[in-house]
Structures are given as C-alpha cells and as structure tokens.
Design goal:
Order of helices and strands of chain B: HHHHHHHHHHH
Largest sheet of chain A: none
Largest sheet of chain B: none
Largest interface: A-B, 35 and 34 residues
Distance between the termini of chain A: 23 Å
Strand content of chain A: under 5%
Number of domains of chain B: 1
Oligomer: heterodimer
Order of helices and strands of chain A: HHHHHHHHHHHH
Structural class of chain B: mainly alpha
Helix content of chain A: over 70%
Number of domains of chain A: 1
Structural class of chain A: mainly alpha
Chain lengths: ~250, ~270
Amino acid sequence: MNKNSFMSVMTQRFVFLIFLLGKIFRFITFGAFLLFLLKGTGGLGGYNINQVLFFYLTFIFVDSLAQVFFREVYRFRPLVISGDLDLILVKPINVLVRVLFGGTDFIDLASLPIILFFLIKTGQILNPNLFQVILFVLLMVNGLVIAMAFHIAVISFGIITLEIDHTILIYRDLLTFARFPIDIYKEPLKSILTYIIPVGVMITMPAKALMGIISPSGVVGSFLFGGLFLFLSLRFWNFALTKYTSASS
Amino acid sequence: MKKYLSVFEISYQQEFAYRLNFIMWRFRNIIQVFITFFMWTSIFAGSNKIIFGYSKERIFTYVLGILMVRAFVMSSRSADVSGDISRGEITNYLLKPINYFGFWLTRDLSSKVLNMIFALVETIILFLILKPVFFVQTNPMLVFAFLVSLAIAFFIYFNLLFLTNSVPFWYPEVAWGAQFLFMVVIAEFLSGSLFPIDVLPAVAQDILMLTPFPYLIYFPLQVYLGKLSTAMMLKGIVISGAWLVLLGFCLNKIWKRGLKAYTAHGR
C-alpha cells in the first residue's frame, strides 16, 4: 500500500519538492520568530527559552508523525460517499489498518529528520537523564496513540455523518494550542485542553517528562487517558461500521 | 456596472451555499487569535512593561486587529483561478463579455464584506470573553493613513495571488503547490499575522520591509497603533505603493504571456 503511495508521490517530484520546501520554511520561520521573541522576553509562562523551544519541537514532531502515519484518513470520505469502502471491507485485511495507515505522507516523512535533529539538539541542552528520556519516548508514543484514537473517531464520525474534512481540520487546529505549554492558557481552556481535547497529554506531558517536571500521577494519568481514548474510539468505530449503508455502490 | 453588482450578489450568496466551509474558516482564525492572545498574556503577566516597543494595550490591539485586517486583506475567492487554469475551465470566463480581473475583484469584494461582518462580530465576542485592554486610535490623520495602507494591502494581495495563480499556465500540476508555498506559508508568516515583524533583529526587519509581505498585515496595524514616525509611515506607503505598481506591471506581462501559453488543458 505504502509502496504504491510512494510511487504515486514520485511521479510528481516537483510538486513534492514545493510542499517539502513549504513545510521546512514554515517550521524554520516559526522557530526563528519564537526564538527571537523569547530572547526579548526571557521565556514564556515560567519556562526558559530552551524549554519553550522544546515544547514547540515536540508539537511539530508529534504532529508530523501523525501526518506520516494517518494521512490516508484525509482520503476516507470519497470511499464512504462512493461506496468504494465495500472494496476494502471484502478484502482479507484489517479495514481499520487499511484506512488509517494506507497512505503514508512522504512529504512529512522527508521533513522528519530535520525536525528530529533539532528536537534532539534542544533536548540535549535540557540535560535529561536516561529515565527522563525513556519516559519522554513512552509518553510520546502515548501521544501518538491518542492521535490515532482521534483519527479513528473522525473516520467513524465520517461514516455516520459523511463529514470528515472539517472534523480533521478542527483536530489539527486544536492541536496547535500545544505549540506552547498548555500552562499559559487560562481556565477553563486549560482544563479543556487537558481532559476533553487532551492535546496537553499528547504534547505538553511528554516534553515535561524530559524536563523532569512531571508528577508520577501525571504519568499514570496520561497512560490511562491514552488507553481509555483508544478503547472508546475503537468502540465507536465498531458502532459506526454497523451504520455503513454502502450507498452509491 | 450592473453585471458586476450581479456578480457580487451571486458570489455573496455562494458563500452561504458552503456554510460549514465558511464557519470552519472563521473558526480557524479565532483559534489562531486565542493562541496568540494567551501567549502575549503570559508574556505580559502581572506587569506593565514595554516589550519590542509594545505596551500591553498595543499588543492586544495588534492581536485582535489581525482578525479584522486579515478578513479585509486576505479573504479571497480568486484562489480558485489557478484550479480553473489547470483544468482548462478559464476558457468559459474568457469568452464572456466581462473583464476577468474585474470579475474576480468583485468576487473578492463579496468575500471580504462577508468576512468583515463575521470578523467584527467575532472581535466583539472575543473582546467580551477575553476583556483585553484595547487601544483606540483617535488621530484622524493616522486613521486615514491606516485606511490608505489597507487599500494598498488589498491590491498587493490581489496581485500576489493572481501572480501565483498564473503558475499553472506553464505547470498545471503545481496549481495548489504554488499557492501553498507563496500564499499559505510565505505570505502568512512574513505578513506579520503570526508575530509582529519587529520581534526580529533589525537587519532582518530592514530586509523584510523591502518585500511586499509586511505591507499586508503588519504595516497597516503599525500605522493604526501610531508606532511609526511620519517619515517612516510615508516611506512605508511609498514602498508599498511601488510594490503595487511593480506587481501590477508584472501581472499584466505574465498574464498576457500565460494566455498565449494556455492550451485549454483538459478541455
């Protein structure tokens, strides 16, 4: 599946390069603006320059990874509308795996090494110990699990309502709140970003773990949250499948 | 004139045909304002210091001002032109007895009017929710200069967008790619709609102010906030005016060449 996706991208190398250039420009320009802003202010919300940059880099990394893995979700709506989802349902593969992971975003994949380089370099400045690094990686995986749960919920919602494009954009817009540590937001927004739309658990918590400023209850709560979100989204997916009408096919 | 009024009316109604699209676009703008607002609230927390030349009231005015200025300058329907060219659908318009640029300028105006109405309502709602300190410009000369800079920004954006739209005349497959690079990424970041340009080092600011992008959002807001001396303000208006003339000239040349290269691809 992903080999086909890659070959499809390579037929339009020029377009691929333009989008890659745009993504890299956006990543570097926002980082530069943020850096100069923080140099003028000395930090943000009680965090120093390197910590705030690390929050931003963690956000970009998790967001890009989610794009790499779950890009196929953006192509799910036509399948439901045309009834072509039937053609996937009858195949001897897991339908959810196919519609979630079937089309890797190679533009984001190509930009990942650059983001990872800056993430590691900035992370090193924060002097984490091995335990903090392991916790950071585990919580980031947990963040990706939550991202997956979001995407499953979106396509499930799409089967029932035929609405996907806007829902996924809402998810991505809400995720941008985590460009900065969620501590800078006031209540009730802060609680919403922690407990209802858990972008804080996805991004702020892993970054805090690397800095060694996360409580044990925060760690346990994050993993429980991730598990619960995935469980609920899978239940929703199973429910949504029963509502699929195979229209137009 | 009557046909342009009809275009305006139909275009305005079309915006309501895709209500969810429109609401989503506005929702995304609000999220951006929320994030920027809280970032600056955190920076100014518990103090009345001046940062990058901004007091608390001026920076919050800048943040809320982005919503209004963006709605006026960057709301546009003419982004559809590149798709029309790459699909060969522009032929339908070229055959009609109407000026093509006038047609899209009218459509853009209808989009701007609707977006301005929504932006105004959103600003009032955000103002009531966030209760920011706000700066109201009372100097009539600065208000006039602000309106002039907005008018220039309006036409600079139109020219930039149409120049980007011209790319598919030669590379039809790059229609969305060119818009993504120039109008979504570069214009967005360098116009000051995410951060004011003056957070950058002086050298970077000087270079950026020689490009057309800061004159879309940043410069009009600086004029409104009264942050510029009269000389700086006039210099900015002259540079942006020069860009407007240059871009208009380039667009005219490139569009004519593009039409010669156009093969009604896909028709």
